[in-house]
Amino acid sequence: MIGQVLITTSVDNPLKMAPTSGGYYGPVAYRPDSIPEQPVQNQDFIHSKLGRSADFRLPWGGTQELMPSNLFARWPPKALREIEQVGDLLAGTGDRGQQDHECIRFAPLAFRSRVINILGAFGKAFFWVSIPLVLAVYILELSHYPSNENWIVVLLSFWDFALAFIGIPAFLWLSTSLLFKLFPQWCLKAGRGPEWELNRRTGMVRVWRYRRTIPFLGRRKATIIEHPFYEFDGWVAGGATQHGSRFDFILCHRYSKLEVHLGDILLGWQRFPRPCYALWDFLQNYMDVTRPLPEFPVLEPHRHKDPVTAEHDRTTGRPERYWRDMDDVTFKQKEDEMYRQVMRINTEQRPNLMAKKVRYAHMTPEDMLAYGRGSRESRQGRSRSGAHRQRIGNA
User: Fold this and answer.
1) 39 DSSP assignment
2) What beta strand segments (E) does the chain contain?
3) DSSP string, 99-150
4) Residue 154 contacts by C-beta under 8 Å, 6 or more apart in sequence?
5) Spatial CB neighbours of 213, under 8 Å, sequence gap ≥ 6
6) How does pLDDT run across 27-38, given as a tens digit for each residue?
7) Angle between helices 77-86 and 328-343 (to 10 degrees)
8) Closest to 69 measured CA to CA, from 288, 259, 296, 352
9) Contact residues for 36 (Cβ-Cβ < 8 A; gap 6+)
10) How many Cβ atoms sit within 10 Å of the Cβ of residue 335?
11) 3-state SS class at 47
12) What is the distance between the alpha carbons of residues 42 and 97, in angstroms, rounded to a whole number?
């Protein structure tokens, strides 16, 4: 098998792969300038699937220092400072999720934790939306009553509607917040284990596959599948709904049917493909051990633990608490600038540098350009076809 490792293990035992070389990074850690020659791809498992014609593969290389703005803003400086003061609430729960200098690993929480979190987020969001909405309806209702009617009388007749519209989301928000405050250990419970991992130190992508088990007959067993990062390609999955086009990002193994749906967690569905392009740049930059960690605020406390990043920060004089000490106004400006950079990303004009190492089953204009063939016209034609797909989705 092409770079594949199969491991069967109990999900209760954390696995840490140490590099097999003498250095800090593993022998297959991603280095764009030293990717080994890849086997020929005899079959494209994505193109062979019915109904996937709207998907397209993204080129390797030529990355920019950016990431999706919603991912960038997920942990603002205020949240990072609160984590420093309070500590990690998931510590001691058995949670195996990780986001640091070594890897990005997704491990969902238990079902009850996710339900409580969803109810609290829904209640908070709907509460703030319902206040101006109820106020607007009340003013409209007041205008239809005779001028001699007291506003208090109108309010009392309107009270049931206002209470239901504002009170229910407020109750959900406050009750879940109180539940977290009084019973944090019960609310925060680890799930069955990790689902996927991108390991910068080893250069491997891991996927956990869980078998169904019969209750009371033992622990869940997981099969772990591993491949080097450079054997995966970034794909944008296009689709359409009644509200318009939708795009998702997927990591697809080049030589098997393995798919890693990173976009669901790190990005979410997007109406335009550019945030997916930005996520692909971010993942390549994160895995690239020849360059420092990306300027992702949540990674800042771990920058000194990564040798390449620590040396970069030392030579450039980067402040140790650049993000954590930033004020909210400045961070919002950084977020807006990140969004503008994502909207200007040049992914569709890049050659696919991986095509110099592997012969794909289906060659794209970006692949041909990397070989020295292809033309600007062919790339522009691809861009026009992508715009056509987007117009169809918006129709």
Assistant:
1) P
2) 5-10, 56-57, 98-99, 103-106, 196-199, 204-210, 221-228, 232-241, 244-253, 259-260
3) ESSSEEEE-PBPHHHHHHHHHHHHHHHHHHHHHHHHHHHHHHHHHTS-TTS-
4) 138, 141, 142, 145
5) 219, 220, 221
6) 999 999 999 999
7) 130
8) 296
9) 357
10) 15
11) coil
12) 35
CA angle centred on 235, ends 231 and 241, rounded to 5°: 155
Does the pTM surpass 0.90? The reply is no
Q: What three-state secondary structure class fits 270?
A: strand
Which amino acid belongs to residue 220? Answer: R
Residue type, 337: E
Tokens 């650049």 label which residue? Answer: 322
Q: Over the stretch 144-198, which tens digit does the pLDDT of each residue have? A: 666 655 666 666 666 677 777 787 888 777 877 777 777 666 666 666 778 899 9
CB count, 10 Å around CB of 371?
13
Asked whether 275 and 70 are in contact (CB, 8 A), the reply is: yes
- Measured CA to CA, the distance from residue 137 to residue 128 in angstroms comes to 15
Give the pLDDT score at 84. 86
Q: 378, exposed or middle or buried, with CB in 10 Å at 0-12, 13-18, 19+?
A: middle
Q: What 8-state DSSP symbol labels residue 190? A: B
Answer for the pair 294, 65: CB distance below 8 angstroms, yes or no: yes
Name residue, tokens 């086009």: 245
CA 61 to chain centre: 20
Residue 73 CA: distances (Å) to CA of 37, 57, 152, 267: 38, 27, 43, 12
- Let me know the angle formed at the C-alpha of 157 by 151 and 162, rounded to the nearest 5 degrees: 95
The rounded distance, in Å, linking the Cα atoms of 41 and 254 is 7
